[in-house]
Amino acid sequence: MTEADTHTILSDAFLTVLYASGPIMAIALSIGLAVAFFQALTQIQEMTLTFVPKIVSIFLGLLVLLPFMYAMVKRLSDTVFDLIINGGF
Asked: Is residue 12 part of a domain?
């Protein structure tokens, strides 16, 4: 196994983590910004107002995006396991 192979595997792993977690992070960021903007406009400073919508949106996002996330992680694990079986490691 060369340095280029190691670099390829590590970059694939990092990209898989970014692609799998990115949509959930974007959902949490957008809901958090919308709630913060609403709180700034109405001057309502209730902690549950920031927590509950974010948790609900993350849960719904996970329900929708879980097959995509699973496919990404499965593709990476299949690649790494094939390398192990073929003697690439």
From this structure: yes
User: Which two three-digit tokens encode residue 71?
Assistant: 């496919």
Question: What secondary structure, in 3-state letters, does the chain show?
Answer: CCHHHHHHHHHHHHHHHHHHHHHHHHHHHHHHHHHHHHHHHHCCCCHHHHHHHHHHHHHHHHHHHHHHHHHHHHHHHHHHHHHHHCCCC
* Domain assignment present for 7: yes
Contacts of 8 (CB under 8 A, 6+ apart): none
Residue 55, domain member (yes or no): yes
pLDDT tens column, 16-35? 999 999 999 999 999 999 99
Q: What is this structure's pTM?
A: 0.79
Which tens digits make up the pLDDT trace of 35-53?
Answer: 999 998 998 888 888 889 9
- Say if 8 falls within a structural domain: yes
